[in-house]
């Protein structure tokens, strides 16, 4: 397999440079709603949710905030976090906390009832994805709900974001299942290339 390590490590720089054009391209249509509703249905009211790779906080974090939940958003891109803070200033939205940091290394004292890693986890190398389950474990409590997007099968792919090579990777379904089980998560539902969510492969699990 060709070594794409340099491309994986360049993801943060790409999103920093392309943050505003990416946000305009992404728009605010919530095509993830069916999955977010499944995720939120497993949580108590007014839960603490950790959104890893939160971007500008719109539309995903915005939807969770509208449903009455408290959101801690983490993103490596300073430009993305600036937009999140503009969209949801912490002095007006005390239930929000926006943290610039790398999901692989960010240190948080708080435990969360929900952990969401949507369209960000799959930019990590397979090795770093495996290691992230220790982070998930650290941020979790009893009954924590975890939802993340992945690829449909093991491998690496290089996409394109406004002329920049955009790295994606995935473990196999068997590997994800083994890691979830190892860290005490039971798979609630997993759909590969969901036609009702623009072809996303989504995992929804809950801590035993």
UniProtKB/TrEMBL annotation:
Entry keyword set: Methyltransferase, Transferase
Sequence ranges assigned to domain Methyltransferase in this UniProt record: 49-136
SUPFAM superfamilies registered for this protein in UniProt: S-adenosyl-L-methionine-dependent methyltransferases
GO process terms (BP): methylation
Pfam families, per the entry: Methyltransf_25
GO molecular function annotations of the record: methyltransferase activity
Protein name as catalogued: Class I SAM-dependent methyltransferase
């Amino acid at each position: 397999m060709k070594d794409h390590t340099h491309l994986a490590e360049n993801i943060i720089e790409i999103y920093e440079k392309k943050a505003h054009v990416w946000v305009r391209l992404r728009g605010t249509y919530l095509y993830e709603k069916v999955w977010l509703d499944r995720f939120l249905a497993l949580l108590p009211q007014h839960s603490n949710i950790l959104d890893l790779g939160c971007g500008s906080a719109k539309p995903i974090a915005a939807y969770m905030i509208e449903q009455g939940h408290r959101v801690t958003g983490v993103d490596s891109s300073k430009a993305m976090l600036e937009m999140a803070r503009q969209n949801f200033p912490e002095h007006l939205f005390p239930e929000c906390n926006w943290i610039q940091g790398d999901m692989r290394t960010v240190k948080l004292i708080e435990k969360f009832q929900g952990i969401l890693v949507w369209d960000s986890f799959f930019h990590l190398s397979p090795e770093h994805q495996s290691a992230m389950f220790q982070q998930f474990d650290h941020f979790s409590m009893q009954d924590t709900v975890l939802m993340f997007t992945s690829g449909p099968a093991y491998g690496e792919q290089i996409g394109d974001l406004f002329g920049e090579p955009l790295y994606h990777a995935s473990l196999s379904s068997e590997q994800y299942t083994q890691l979830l089980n190892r860290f005490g998560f039971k798979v609630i539902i997993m759909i590969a290339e969901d036609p009702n969510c623009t072809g996303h492969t989504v995992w929804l699990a809950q801590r035993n």
